[in-house]
Amino acid sequence: MLQSTMMNMPLTLNSILDRCGSLFADVDIISNTPDKQLHKTNYGEVARRARQLASALQKAGVKPGDRVATLMWNHYAHLECYFAIPSIGAVIHTLNLRLHGDDIAYIANHAEDRILIIDDILLPLLREFEDQVSFERIIVLNYGGEPHTHEDYEDFLSSGNAQPEAVDIDEHWACGMCYTSGTTGKPKGVLYGHRSSVLHAMGFALPDAG
Length: 210
Prior knowledge:
Radius of gyration: 18 Å
Strand order of the largest sheet: 7-6-5-3-4-8-9
CATH class: Alpha Beta
Order of helices and strands: HEEHEHEHEHEEHEEH
Helix content: 25-40%
Strand content: 15-25%
CATH architecture: 3-Layer(aba) Sandwich
Structural class: alpha/beta
Number of domains: 1
CATH superfamily: ANL, N-terminal domain
Oligomer: single chain
CATH topology: Rossmann fold
Distance between the termini: 39 Å
């Protein structure tokens, strides 16, 4: 049987990271930060920082299949996490900041999250359940909020380099994880794969996808 010779490549989020960082490097990304300021960057800068974050996570011992949790609002740094964590075969676990602290603790423990990346404005929420979880490291994106003793996001980022160690990612590996809200029992986890996420992104980009 003849085999196709076109586009023979796995569908991974790394391909999207490479594409947006090279072909669309100058396209602006504008987001609201937790301190109610507008932050302007571009895809080239986000791609660069995402690779640096990926390298820092590898140096921190994160391996393929490990879960890295985020407790953050929707902004440029969260986008960096969305690319960086799956790019090394790990799984980004977006914790639902609308849930009660006890539920977040259950979810983080059930998922076996190793590292938490959090906005400083959400540290009061973390304190509600911090004694119930055992993150190896807590990394805080600082916007001039209240003092804390956790690691600074920018300092952690600077521990990485521009080229993380390459990982041969299978397109069927999990890249993201989220949990149900637990309205009919304990929250249940759902895993998203690289392939399904790329296909979803491509489908959403179609003209009539809205």
